């Protein structure tokens, strides 16, 4: 097949013919090893980047009791690389490519990758595989199966509610004795009828097996570090600050069962509430003196934070489309003797129902 093209050389119009190249048909013995590349960009399914994973981005809003954290959960950024060396984890794209490589190695003739047989690696968003023609057909079938069954989308309804014991009794759904649904379930309609019971509420959609994050509340900017700066004739301070959350934060990972009727929900929730100014004296830091000994004058006062904190990390298994009580603690704002507790309630449901193959 010929295509015509043109270009100008020394003021003359030249016309050239180019032959479109086509890959020769792949024929040969089925047991012969050949190299092929597979574009798997669509299977990586990378979520939006997390600002906490970018060292050049502004610090994120974190729960107020996590002053030293660059990412939710208190993981302090340190030197090193890789998830096993104590440093930050590998980028999500590399993690998913590694998972896909492992899936191919274990799912397609595992013995064929050993002792100088086949090989697999990734270059960019492509898999580069050396295998027999017969096994390449199996690889193509596996990738096609993954594309035909993408991760299901899950809608999450997340509620933090403040309840007294009698209020909790009104919204609890009596257990049915079903061994497959051991979770404690909540009647959301009854909960919404309790005036003022819901403290925070949010909605989130993510893929089954993918972690999502939700924050709600207000942020406060507070100083987190102060460094003295002294010149030849003056002295002063340079401060660093961070936005801290006054509200609720949750990391949640839902995993639907194959038939979509059940779900396992993994949560890591933190609630921080700012109280009135502490009765304790503020921190007092003297203003540095100049090299000549002349005081810059005065002191710097930093208020002590007064925070109510609730932390909850757990997993629960229950039915989909049902509100599951994940746990609760004493309400950080409750006065002594107040029986109210702050409860976390999560409902997970499949966004689009689909038929399950037998």
Which secondary structure elements does this structure contain, and how are they paired or packed?
Elements: E1 2-9, E2 12-19, E3 33-39, H1 41-44, E4 62-63, H2 92-107, E5 119-123, E6 126-132, H3 133-148, E7 153-163, H4 165-171, E8 185-186, H5 188-192, E9 198-207, E10 212-230, E11 235-256, E12 262-274, E13 283-286, E14 299-302, E15 307-319, E16 323-330, E17 341-350
Parallel strand pairs: 4-11
Antiparallel strand pairs: 1-2, 3-6, 5-6, 7-9, 7-17, 8-16, 10-11, 11-12, 12-15, 13-14, 16-17
Outline the biggest β-sheet: 5 strands, mixed
Order of helices and strands: EEEHEHEEHEHEHEEEEEEEEE
Low-confidence stretches: 16-21, 47-59, 67-87
The helical percent reads 10-25%
Radius of gyration: 29 Å
Describe this structure in words.
Strands 4, 10, 11, 12 and 15 form a five-stranded mixed β-sheet that branches. The protein folds into two domains: 29-148, no CATH class; 153-222 and 243-276 and 306-350, no CATH class. It is built from five helices and 17 strands. By secondary structure, it is mainly β. Helices cover 13% and strands 43% of the residues. The protein is flat, with a radius of gyration of 29 Å. The model is unreliable at 16-21, 47-59 and 67-87 (pLDDT under 50).
């Amino acid at each position: 097949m010929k295509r015509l093209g043109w270009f100008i050389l020394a003021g003359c119009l030249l016309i050239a013919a180019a032959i479109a190249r086509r890959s020769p048909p792949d024929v040969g013995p089925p047991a012969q090893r050949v190299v092929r590349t597979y574009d798997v960009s669509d299977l990586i399914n990378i979520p939006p980047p997390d600002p906490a994973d970018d060292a050049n981005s502004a610090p994120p809003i974190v729960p107020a009791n996590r002053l030293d954290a660059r990412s939710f959960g208190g993981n302090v950024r340190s030197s090193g690389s890789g998830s096993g060396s104590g440093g930050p984890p590998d980028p999500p794209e590399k993690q998913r490519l590694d998972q896909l490589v492992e899936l191919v190695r274990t799912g397609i003739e595992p013995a064929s990758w050993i002792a100088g047989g086949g090989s697999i690696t990734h270059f960019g968003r492509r898999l580069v595989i050396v295998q027999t023609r017969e096994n390449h057909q199996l690889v193509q079938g596996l990738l096609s199966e993954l594309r035909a069954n993408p991760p299901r989308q899950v809608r999450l309804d997340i509620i933090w509610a403040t309840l007294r014991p009698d209020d909790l009794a009104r919204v609890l759904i009596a257990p049915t004795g079903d061994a497959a649904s051991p979770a404690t379930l909540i009647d959301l309609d009854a909960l919404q009828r309790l005036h003022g019971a819901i403290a925070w509420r949010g909605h989130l959609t993510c893929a089954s097996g993918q972690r999502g994050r939700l924050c709600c509340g207000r942020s406060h900017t507070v100083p987190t570090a102060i460094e003295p700066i002294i010149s030849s004739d003056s002295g002063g301070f340079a401060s660093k600050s961070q936005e801290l959350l006054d509200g609720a934060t949750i990391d949640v990972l839902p995993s639907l069962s194959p038939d979509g009727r059940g779900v396992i929900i993994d949560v890591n929730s933190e609630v921080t509430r700012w109280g009135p100014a502490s009765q304790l004296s503020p921190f007092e830091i003297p203003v540095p003196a100049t090299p000549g000994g002349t005081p810059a004058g005065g002191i710097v006062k930093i208020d002590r934070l007064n925070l109510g904190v609730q932390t909850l990390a757990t997993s629960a298994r229950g039915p989909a489309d049902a509100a599951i009580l994940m746990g609760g603690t004493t309400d950080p704002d409750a006065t002594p003797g107040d029986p109210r507790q702050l409860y976390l309630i999560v409902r997970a449901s499949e966004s689009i129902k689909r038929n399950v193959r037998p």
